[in-house]
Amino acid sequence: MGLALVHSRARAGVAAPPVQVEVHLSGGLPSTQIVGLPAAAVRESRDRVRAAILCAQFEYPQRRITINLAPADLPKDGGRFDLPIALGILAASGQIDREALAGCEFLGELGLTGELRPVDGVLPAVLAAARDGRRLVVPAGSGAEAALAREAEAYVARTLLEACAGLGGPAALPRAEAAMACAAQVPVPDLADVRGQAQARRALEIAAAGGHHLLMSGPPGCGKTLLASRLPGLLPEASEPEALETAAVASISGRGFDPQRWRQRPWRAPHHGASAVALAGGGSPPRPGEISLAHNGVLFLDELPEWSRAALEVLREPLESGRITVARAGRSAEFPARFQLVAAMNPCPCGWAGDPSARCRCTPDRIRQYWSRLSGPLLDRIDLHLAMARLPPRALRADAPAGESSATVRERVVAAQARQRARAGQLNARLDNAGLAASCRLDDAGQQLLEQAGERLQLTARSLHRVLRVARTIADLAGADRIATAHLAEALGYRAPPACATR
Questions:
Q1: Contact status, residue 135 vs residue 164, Cβ threshold 8 Å
Q2: Beta strand pairing status for 31-35 and 64-70?
Q3: CA dist., res. 405 & res. 233, Å (int)
Q4: What b-and-e string marks burial along 227-252, b requiring 16 or more CB atoms within 10 Å of the CB?
Q5: Would you call 323 helix, strand, or coil by DSSP?
Q6: Strand, coil or helix: what is 186?
């Protein structure tokens, strides 16, 4: 009899729980059986492993082989267990040293020739292996992704034969190397391209500085999408922990992952025909949706009332908690979803309500019905509500004065965020009740103004708290230690509903 134990990692959302691959050889008719809740792709690995072992000039044992993937109640899927299964069979049959497998973890799909093919979810596995004090061996095609975790020990192998030869010690396998930064980075649109719209530019700066959600309403062609696309250029570069979190989500998404651009904040702009599952995530096994792919970045939803009600209501929980739980019949997974929402919409079905040209023929009932597609709880969770107007033709002339560039505004945003993190350890948009009480104190005049505005605008407690957070951000942009009445008045101006919505 022979017994071998090999360490590996499963995929469960952005987590990578440990899996022990136990291989037992015993007497009896030759057969190979895999147990431990394997999916179809894992059960098929016995045929891939057999061919790979023979092509690597090893002997496939003609005995009864039992392979257990523990823990047995954890679902296993994909071809990521091919390499540890093959190494377990070789160790159990005495063809490689089983003691050399200790202290290492293995991931990789095997081709019939013994070639190692990349798998998804490598980055979460590398981070988890480093926390447990083990080295990780991955296919060469996954090396650039594994190298993003700079404090982890990750090594690469191109074939099963190389992986076996590397068991003599860490130096026998090459270390995973990060991909060189792409010379042709994706250009970030500049705010200087936006003509006019001084109030909208100001709202965008406040949203960037405090991490606030923004809703823009205005007629077609007034610059809503143009402004929204400039927001990533105002945000500071993601820190390494933030970038690793975002990269881990992209790694398990199944949509491809570019290690060369892992420090760039994501920008996601799904079409309004996308379903609730496309936004929240789903499938079997559960995969992250658009709101998780926008983690630590920007989620832009254009034509907001055209989205299905079910899709929009999915946003409620993650807008508050920054996480989303996807539950399916067989299993569930939790994904991070700390995104910054920027939404755009027309003021009425035809788009011209409130325009001086009087082109709008929508009745008040139609306009109210149009706005009623957005639920009150959803609108309540959006910090800044901005009504935009159509620009006059003279403001679009080529020789019209340009506004500030993204680099100039970004300097103020970075300084304001530094003040917030020094004071509370986080951005103003994420302050809890205790943080509000400590950071957003008002004087008597400010408190009276807030209460009067709350009565007149019928603001909920959540809306009042969001007004305070926005006012705190405006004060930070001004370099003020306390919220002045002017800061609070400007913040209240971003909560007033458009006139057309109350007609």
A1: no
A2: parallel
A3: 10
A4: bbbbbbbbbeebeeebbbbbbbbbbb
A5: strand
A6: coil
Residue ranges of domains in the chain, CATH in brackets: 2-172 (3.30.230.10), 191-502 (3.40.50.300)
pLDDT, tens digit only, all 503 positions of the chain: 689 999 999 998 899 999 999 999 998 899 999 999 899 989 999 999 999 999 999 999 999 999 999 999 898 999 999 999 999 999 999 999 989 898 899 999 999 999 999 999 999 999 999 999 999 999 999 999 999 988 889 999 999 999 998 886 656 889 998 776 543 456 788 888 888 888 999 999 999 999 999 999 999 888 899 999 999 999 999 999 999 999 999 999 887 777 778 888 999 999 999 999 999 988 878 889 999 999 999 999 999 999 999 999 999 999 999 999 888 766 788 899 999 999 999 999 988 887 777 678 888 899 999 999 999 899 999 999 999 988 887 777 776 677 889 999 999 999 999 999 999 999 999 999 899 999 999 999 999 999 999 999 899 999 999 999 999 999 999 999 999 999 999 999 998 766 555 55
Beta carbons of 59 and 95 less than 8 angstroms apart: yes
Position 460, amino acid: T
State the Cα–Cα distance between residues 294 and 341, nearest whole angstrom: 9
Do residues 348 and 360 make contact, with C-beta atoms less than 8 angstroms apart?
yes
- DSSP character at residue 499: G
- Residue 44: is it exposed, middle or buried by C-beta count within 10 angstroms (0-12/13-18/19+)? middle
Contact yes or no for 360/370 (Cβ under 8 A): no
Scan for tokens 């809740």, then name that residue. 37
> Phi and psi of 294, rounded to 5°?
-90, 10
Cβ-based neighbour number of residue 383 at 10 Å: 28
Backbone angles phi, psi at 128, to 5 degrees: -70, -40
Tokens read off for 88: 């377990």
